[in-house]
Design a protein that fits this description.
The chain is of the alpha/beta class and 234 residues long. The protein is built from seven helices and eight strands; from the N terminus they run βββαββαβαβαβααα. The longest helix has 16 residues. It holds the Pfam family Dynamin_N.
Amino acid sequence: MSFSGGLCSPAHAAPLDFLPRGSGIVTRRPLILQLIQDRNEYAEFLHKKGQYFTDFDAVRKEIEDETDRVTGQNKGISPHPINLRVFSPNVLNLTLIDLPGLTKVPVGDQPPDIEQQIRDMILTFISRETCLILAVTPANSDLATSDALKLAKEVDPQGLRTIGVLTKLDLMDEGTDAREILENRLFALRRGYVGVVNRGQKDIVGKKDIRAALDAERKFFLSHPAYRWVYFEF
């Protein structure tokens, strides 16, 4: 289960590019995404059972429309999940749950207690002992103040089922790096940390596809003196 301090989810780096992107809170309802390996590639929503989507731009549009149908078009949120199954030869059999990012200041039609509502929503999912928690934190912020790791620790105090995900490694100040964190020598977790370099908004607007983004990420890690050895460990 993936949640963050208001960041895009690592699910955006999946082989199929269909999750909505944008600024502010984009994920406003939990998305339960069931990936199923199959020789054909298509998607099916629980609320539109029997209707098969082969155009993944249409999948993105349906996620946006179904979100707006329940929450409205002015940044409202809802704990009622969207259920989506994706069949593809390019995925592993896996269920991911994409949750809203933590936020503190209400905007649009969001209630004054938006922070508490999202917090309660996240805890409902990550409290389950059978789930792994992807706690997403930007590398260019202080890990000691990470809301995602703090919340994960409430339900997983020993860090046994939490995976730390560091984003924005490419945006750190010159002369700094996150190697100590990625090597699990700072704020240690049983399952460690993974670093990612996601596409920026400019890449999205320019329609940079997932394969090109993954290639750029690989080149970043291999060319960075602090990360090239860490990359091979992953």
